[in-house]
Fold this sequence. Notes:
The chain is an alpha+beta fold. It folds into two domains: about 1-30; about 35-125, Immunoglobulin-like (Sandwich), CATH 2.60.40. Helices cover about 20% and strands about 40% of the residues. The strands form two sheets. Strands 3-9-8-5-6 form a five-stranded mixed β-sheet, with no helix packed on it. Strands 2-1-4-7 form a four-stranded mixed β-sheet, with no helix packed on it. The radius of gyration is 20 Å and the shape is globular. The N and C termini lie far apart (about 65 Å).
Amino acid sequence: MKKKLLWSRRSLLGCGALAAGAWALGAAPQALGSGMRTIEIVARRFTFLPSQVPLKAGERVQVVVQGMDFAHGMNIPDLGKRYDLVPGQFTRFELQPSAPGTIEFLCDNFCGDGHETMHGRFVVT
C-alpha cells in the first residue's frame, strides 16, 4: 500500500511538472510551428530594447513586446497602429513591411522625465 501511495505522489508530481512546462511554453513569446520569425522587444522606462530592429522587405514577422514596469503605449504612426503594453504581459502583432525604409515607433503614454527618449525603429532592407 505504501509503494502504491508513493507511486501516486510521483505520478502527480510528474503530471504537475508536465502541466507547468506546457503552461510555460504557452506563455513564451515564441511563435512555435508558425514558420514566422519572432522579434522580441522589451518596453522599460525610458527605452525600447532593442530600439532598432532590422527587417527584410516582404518578410512576415511576429513582434512580441513585453511591458516591464509601467503601462506604456506603443504607437506606430506610419502603420496607423497602437498597442497598450501592460506590465508583465506580452503584446503580439504581425508585421510585413512591403518596401525598404524606416518605420518609427514610440511610447505614447507619458512615463516620466525621459519619456521623450522612448522610441525606436524598424529598419527594413
